[in-house]
Write a structure and sequence with these properties.
By secondary structure, the chain is an all-alpha fold. It has a single domain, classed as Helix Hairpins, CATH 1.10.287. The chain has 3 helices and no strands. α2 packs antiparallel against α3. It starts with a helix and ends in a 13-residue tail after the last helix.
Length: 101
């Protein structure tokens, strides 16, 4: 497959993630949209690393870092969402003015 095909798929996934981030009001769906955007970045990193054929596998290393950060982000994000849901009985992003003060 060509690099252009991977870039088009990644652009579509990233656009879908941005759309989900803007439109969705549920906090879990917002976290899923961010994950979708990070997966699009991973596709780009691996595609460019395969195209350039570097000896250090820099794209794969950065992709592992992105996956690690995404896993930590989801763990902490879901813990925050669950605690706010217990207190407020809502997972709506518009109702999260709790951390404003």
């Amino acid at each position: 497959m060509l690099v252009n095909q991977f870039l088009l798929i990644a652009a579509f996934l990233f656009s879908l993630g941005v759309y989900g981030l803007i439109v969705r009001r549920n906090a879990v769906m917002v976290l899923l949209a961010v994950e979708l955007m990070l997966n699009a970045v991973n596709i780009n990193l691996i595609a460019f690393e395969a195209y350039l054929r570097s000896a250090q596998a820099v794209g794969q290393v950065f992709s592992i870092f992105v996956i690690t950060v995404a896993a930590a982000e989801v763990g902490i994000g879901l813990a925050i969402v669950l605690m706010i849901f217990r207190n407020r009985a809502s997972a709506n992003v518009d109702d999260f003015n709790l951390m404003r003060y």
